Amino acid sequence: MTYLGVDYYPEHWPEQMIDEDLQGIKDMGANIIRIGEFAWHLMEKEEGAFDFSYFDRVIDKAKQHGLDVMFGTPTATFPAWLAQKHPSILSENENGNTRVFGGRRQYCFNSDKYRQYAAGITEKLVQHYKNEEAIVSWQIDNEFGHEGSDMCYCDQCHGDFHQYLENKYESVDQLNDEWGTIFWGQTYNDFSEIPIPKPTVTTHNPTLKLEWARFRSASVNGFTHQMTAIVNEHKGSHQTVTTNVSGGFFDKWFDHEENVKPMDFVSYDNYPVWGGLEKPIPPEAIAMTHDFNRGLLDQNYWIVEELMGAQGHDVIGYLPRPNQAKMWSYQAFAHGCSNMLYFRWRGMTKGAEQFCYGVVDHDNVYGRKYKEVQSLFSEIKEYDELLNAEIKSDVAVLYDYDNIWSWRSQIQSKDFDFNEELLRLYRPFYRKNTNIDVIPASRDLSTYKVVLVPVMQLMDDALASRLRTFAEEGGTVIFSYRAGLKGKDNNIRLGEVLPGPVRDLIGARVEEIESLTAAHQLELQGEGAFAEVPAHISVWRDLLVPEQAETLYSYQDQFYKEYAAVTKNTFGKGNVYYVGGGLSEEALEKIAADVTSDCGIETIESERDVEVYRRHIGGDSYLFLMNHSDKEKSYGNEKLGPFESRIVKG
Ligand code: GLA
Ligand code: ZN
After folding, report:
1. Which atom of ligand 1 is nearest to the CA of 311?
2. Binding residues for Zn(2+)
3. Does the Cβ of 343 fall within 6 Å of ligand 1?
4. Mean pLDDT, to the nearest integer, of 145-164?
5. Domain 395-599 has CATH 3.40.50.880
6. Is this prediction's pTM over 0.90?
């Protein structure tokens, strides 16, 4: 059975409205509500006075209306009495300012006090409802590490960071050696002397910054896993466990794959537009978020917050057009979402999120958005089995959080953005409507035909050799710039000609490099089949000297005409491309066309902004059609109105 529903906050409304709301939710075609993730105080008004009677009543009503329940453990918003009694639970920003009570998620992941109280409410809550048939799933906390809450610079964190380093390094001398603290005379005599990267003059040691990022990840994931273990220990066997991943996952200081490891499934909060944005993020950027979430546990996932109304705290922006939010829902189902809840039933009239609009607005009128959700629920219900079918891809994009954190702490080009560089290689294959997995670089590559490796500057020999084997055995690898610059210690390798550990695969060497801006676009000259395909490079450039590889594009500017910008190397039975900078779309689409045809990968030609996603069930195949534009579009005989979407056999 596919779960379809809304996030409901009964505690926000007069109790006598609940039955009417639940009936409205049921009539919309829902079979589940998510409740409770911000209601700690309601369940523990004073320390130790646990009282779940309010939600007992709500859940009884839900059952009367035939609705199941996902319950959120409320540790994202702790009670005021706890902050007053134990201010040490509050996290601190890099300037040492305490994040005061009044917002949310402002707890320190390393606060023993907070872990003690969070464990308390979580255990009591789950024990109370372990036999509750209607509660089918627990959501742990809410959007871990979102809104900057993954960073804390308090003394507790500083002390724990020292312990983390002492556990990792045999001695402070080994640390000094690995970090290169001889530079600027920063040699430490003792771990207790080591700072955390608060503001200083110039900047901190790159390896310190990487270790701090790893420590932040261990802190967030340690808390997550402690809470998850409590839920798993006390929950009913009919209840599953998940947590909701927020957008901007490549801008977070924790490894998401590690974070969700103990979960039964991943949940995602899909907001293609939020806050003051004038327009939604591009279709390929939305698609990539789904492929990322599917990749975390390598299985289909839930969306527990799907946008329907405009969203924002103090600033709001773009209003999703009629059918546009529905289209984004179809896109999510196409990419592996198997169950979906919309955020939220009705917009709140009080508090920080008055402008986070729901399915029903403050006027409580069941209007356009209500009908849009109702139509989506009635249409998608028919495809129960299809939504749960496994998605297989021939193309994978690799990412590694250590690599992402090393870029974040030294961006090298003022316009560098990891998300954009990943999308630069993802986009041309997305536009070929071929399935793409977005996966951690540590994953097995043997099932793929093409592996995309965007800006992997941090690369250990293990990854280099797995990519070598993949290419030798016939795979195609596409690297982009700065590949293999550093080891996992975030240091540059002495005496090694770049691209270091993958020079043989790439069949070219990097002679010099130059940081560019996004506006500084250098025209390139295509060779051979690329001669007629215009191209330019921006953001960064590697000046390549082909060794075994052929040149696809070369630079045209003074002094650098003899250098290659993009190369292709035949390696073993496979091919290896090197994109030596921020290459423009047309050239990348030509490469994707060559690669998909060389590798016999199924592609589907469609108009720009018409996304076509094929899914298989048994021997049948279906196409999800999504028109991302406000114009009339078509796919074959299928006419698609503005933002229209549907599933067809084919
Ligand atoms: C997030 C949170 C919700 C709410 C919405 C608003 O995703 O999980 O609690 O703040 O955003 O859009
Ligand atoms: Zn802290």
Report:
1. 12
2. 108, 152, 154, 157
3. yes
4. 98
5. yes
6. yes
